[in-house]
Structure formats: C-alpha cells, structure tokens
Design a protein that fits this description.
Layout (H helix, E strand, L loop, with lengths): L1 E4 L6 H12 L5 E5 L1 H8 L7 H9 L6 E5 L4 H8 L3 E5 L12 E5 L7 H7 L6
Parallel strand pairs: 1-2, 2-3, 4-5
Length: 126
C-alpha cells in the first residue's frame, strides 16, 4: 500500500492515516513531498525540511519504506513500486488522480491539520 503527504508539522491526523493504512497491508510505502514540490504546489516552503520530515516518517513503526514524492504522478509510483492500493483521507474523494490500483479513503481527523497548526503558530503569511 502507498500513501503520501507533506507531513509538515507532523500531527495526530498524520499518525491516524499511517496506522489505518498499515492495518490493511503487509508493506506500507510512504511518499514524502519534497521541498521543491511543496513550494511548487503550495507557493511556500515547508516549515520542516524534507530530510527531517522523511526521518520522522521513517521512524514510525507503521512505515516500512519512505520515498520522495517529487511530483503528483501517482500512476508512476503505482507502476514503479507495484502498488496494490493507495490510501488517502476522504477529503480527496473525487479529487484524486485516476490510478489502476484500489483506493482506500479514511475519515478525516477532525480539528487537526497542518494548516490549523501553522495558523495557530502564526507561520502562515496572510
């Protein structure tokens, strides 16, 4: 199974999706967005650099392998890593790019997100 994200300011919602994903598979690969991809897609650099975010994710017991997410081409990841299923939050339902594997949607963890944390810490420029 594969899941991916920025994982900037790691929080309980991130942990939930990793744990729920691992419960459904024998081997969980996690794509961590590179700093360049985050800058390109969100218009700002992450608070925590890629190498540190990748180390955080790789240290979690549910994660078997961490790979850099350099672009949003999910089918390329499916093909290169023989992915059987992808897991994402249900906020992606209807928005996720088409892929040739199964999709598993998990309920969004209420009241926590990196955006909420950054805003609370005044890290988002308005």
């Amino acid at each position: 199974m594969y899941t991916s994200g920025c994982f900037d300011l790691f929080h309980y919602g991130h942990l939930n999706i990793l744990q729920k994903s691992k419960e459904l598979c024998d081997y969980l690969i996690v794509g961590v967005s590179t700093d360049e991809l985050i800058l390109k897609t969100k218009g700002q650099k992450p608070v925590i650099p890629y190498e540190e975010r990748a180390k955080i994710i790789s240290s979690i017991k549910y994660v078997d392998e961490v790979i850099p997410q350099n672009d949003k081409d999910k089918q390329k990841v499916v093909d290169e890593h023989s992915i059987d299923a992808i897991s994402v939050g249900d906020d992606w339902r209807g928005k996720y790019p088409p892929v040739t594997c199964e999709m598993e949607y998990f309920s969004y963890t209420e009241s926590v997100s990196s955006t909420i944390l950054k805003d609370t810490l005044k890290l988002i420029k308005k």
